[in-house]
Each structure stands twice: as C-alpha cells, then as structure tokens.
Design goal:
alpha+beta, three-stranded antiparallel sheet
Amino acid sequence: MAEGHSGKGANHAEISDNVVDERTVVELAYRPQPADTLVGLRVRERIKRTGLLLRGVLLVLLAGLWLVSPVVRGSVDAVSTVLVLLVLLLVWGYPRLQAAHVQRLVGWQGEYRATVSPAGITCRTDHGTLIQKWSVFQGYRETAGHFVLLSRDPNIMCLDVLPKRGAHEAADLERLRAILHQHTPRV
C-alpha cells in the first residue's frame, strides 16, 4: 500500500513540474504584415547605424556629383538628373523591398501563435514550430505597435517582431513587457 501511495505522489510531482504559471506566459496570435517587418528593419538600422551612415555618404556624394555637373558643363544634364532620382528612389525603397520579400517568405504560413515565457519564445504556425531561448537575443526595443527582438550576431541578421495587436488583452502587453525586461535588456 505504501508503494501505491508513493507512486501517486511521484506522478503528481511530474504533473506539477509541467504546469506553468499563467502570469509568466503571454500568448500572441497574429498574421505577419509587411509593415511589421519594416518596423523591425528600421529598428535594426537604428541600432547598427552603418546602413544609415552608408546611405548618408552615398546621398551626399551623389548630390555633390549632380551639383558639380552644371558648374562644369554650364547646364543640368538630364541623364544625371534621372540617375540621381533613380538612386534616391532605390535608397528610399530598399527597406520596403526587403519587407515585401520577407512577407513572401513568411506570409504563406498563415497565422502565427507566439508564446513568450521564461524559457524563451516559441512561435507556431500550421507548418512548423520555432523555439528560441533568451540567449539568442542581445536585447529588444519597443515601438508604438511592436516589440522587436534583435539577435546576438554582429550583423543582427535575425529579428523577431512581436506585434502588439496579437495580444488578447491590454494586461498581456504589460506581462509581455515584464517578461522581456526580465530576460533581455532594452536596447
């Protein structure tokens, strides 16, 4: 009889180890949009700053060349004006092109169900599951509509963008903010 009792206790202990406190878990459900990716790319750009610097240098050089052309030739060259406008369009549009490309990669998977817990972030779709521990991230940044988590690699090649619209209620956002603050620094 003692053996039967101890068996029940051991089984009960296993069950209680698998129970997670609901206050330490936040679930989000959302469909990724290009605007989400664009926010993540802008945050990454602000953190890295090299992209901003390179774009700034390119624009200054291009504007300088375009302004020197009328001085040397005496008139504005139509071809150089069109090229300057084309490069300006590409510099402005490149992040949007990236966001559209990422949307083609992830959009077909449908709804994302992200679970944020003390163990990390688990993201499920109908086609797969991605589990990331907190050690993957160097930090996070909060924007008006998103939480953007940045990977540790030097080029910040991996971003996790958690849209606030995916939260079920306002209290979830406060809990999510607390979990992020506890496990990764704000950058």
